[in-house]
Structures are given as structure tokens and as C-alpha cells.
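Running this now, will post back.
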Amino acid sequence: MQTPIPCLFMRGGTSRGPFFLESDLPADVALRDKVLLAVMGSPHARQIDGLGGGHPLTSKVGMVRPGTLPGVDLDFLFAQLQPDRDTVDTTPNCGNMLAAVVPFALERGIVQPQGDTTTLRVLTLNTGMQCDITVQTPGGRVEYAGDARIDGVPGTSAPIAINFLDTAGSVCSGLLPTGRVRDVIDGLEVTCIDNGMPMVLFRASDMGRTGSESVDAMNADDDLKVRIEALRLKAGHLMGLGDVKAKNYPKMCLIAPPAAGGAVGTRCFIPHVCHDAIGVLAAVTVATACVLKGSVAEGLAVVSGGGVKTIAVEHPTGEFSVELELDAADPEKVIRAALLRTARLLMKGEAMVPASVWEGKSA
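Update: finished.
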């Protein structure tokens, strides 16, 4: 016997995974997590018995409900699973999966289209962050086809605009959780920062790397990965995150001078695998470091003048542009971060889990 759970399988940005209505899952968190592990097929390196894709970017789950706060249309809870672990982490945000929240809610009918475009306010329950998300809804239906292109996704799609309202200190105590824009850990200069994603940034050259290495080369560089993990564990304590050995954050990012006309080059580990691109909120956080005087990006990143800056963050498969608006009274304070993503509904139906895991809700 198996238990069916209504599900939409969606791509959000450069990630993908099943989306559920919160009300279709167990209310008990421990049981819910067992259900999600069964849905995804974790722990197993290839997730062969579930919907996971054998990679952290395809081991993600979205859970949505109507908004519960005044002015908020939708509440979103993101869960990061791992192919080879039995963990369900709802601590960090995911800006890529966030792009699929409004399309999911419209497809499931828990919100209604507003016209040719629909803008809804979404609260990310993981960190309490709010954002306004605009999708194309001509004729009262979600439009997935369009001319918007994002690196890391083939072809083009309809644009989805995400305007983050407050990202500083998403998980940590503030934008600079150590109280400093630059720290030294084991002789290495780093910037510990959280503007949507807790991250540790350091110059690739300080690790004896160029920052232009391929993803395969990075993942095969065992010496580098050992050094990065040792750095991550120490940075976690400095950032007030405690023991992060079993956590998916902070993300670790090597930065380098831009190679293709952007602002900065990156190679991000999430946290143990080199990302083929860069996460949405990781890009926002890296871009923020680029405008902070004294960060490890100073003198390396190429940043234009003006109160509104477009920071093109280069990554292994292209670039990710982030628009930052700075406070006129404090030019190093970011008051708005906006970006463009795309999403697509891949499949709708029911995810099946063994009844031995969950027998479903009572009638």
C-alpha cells in the first residue's frame, strides 16, 4: 500500500523539486520530514527510489500555504535535502525555489490572478524574509513561455521578478555577524556576511587557485575541499551559527577578478559540492560584499558608481545580475535587492510514499 500526496513538480530558477500545500502534509514536523525523505529517495546517492536528482540542487522541496500575516499573500517553507543523508534542513532560504512559489499557488488555486501580471507578497518562513514576486498571467493563467534567459537553464522563459524587502541577517544576527567586514581565520582573510544567505568569502588567489577552474576540477580538488571545510567549521562559530558540521550553511565562496566583463568571479561550494552556477541569495550576498568597503572583494570586484548598482556575479556557467539600491545617507547600506528568475511547471500529480511511512490524513 502507498499513500498519494498531491504534488506539483517544478523548476524554480536553476533548482527543481516537488511543491506541496502545507495542508497536504503531516502537521507533525518529525513525521513530515520522514515523508519528505521518502518522497525524495534520501538517503541514497542517486535517490533512485524517489524524486530527487542525485544532487543538492535537485534535492529541494517547497511547502506553501496562504499567508498568515497582514499584507502577506503566501507563506513559503523551503526544505533542503541531501542525496546521501537523512537530513531535512528548513533553516536556510532558497531564492531559486522561491521563484516557483507564486506559479505553484496560482496553479493550485489558493490565490487568484490579478490581470496580465500578478504581484504577491511572499513570506519565507525559514528566515522571516519577505519579498514581492511578479509573474506573467495573461488571460488569467500562468505564462511560462517568454524571452527571459538565465544562465544555468536552457532556452528562454517568462520573466519572474523578485524584489527582496529585507535580507540582511537572514540566518545570522546581522549583515556582518562577526561585527567586522573582514576577519582572519588560520591566516586567511575572509568576509563573513549574510544578506540572504550566510556565506564566507575569500580570494581564490589566497588559496593558490585562479578562481576560473572548472566545476569538475574544483570537485576533484580534495586538498582544497579539506581546507574549505576546516575554514567553514571555524567560521560557523565566529558567525554565531555554532557547530555547522551537519548544516548546509554557511556557503563557501572563492572570489576572483571578473573574466567576462562582469563585477566578480565566483566558485561557490554548497557547502561541499561546487555549484554549477550560484544560488539566488548567494548572488545577492556576494554582490553586497562587492559594495562594502574593506571586504575581501575590495580592489578585486569591478563596481560602477551611483546609488543603484547592477552587479554581474560571474559563475561557472555564466553570470547572475543583481540590482542593489544603496541608502543615500549611508552608501554602504543596501536597502533593496532585486533580480530576475524563471520557473516552469514540469509535472502535476501525486507523490507516492509507502503507507508504512505515512498512512495519510484521516477523512
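The first strand starts at residue 2 and ends at 12. More later if anyone needs it.
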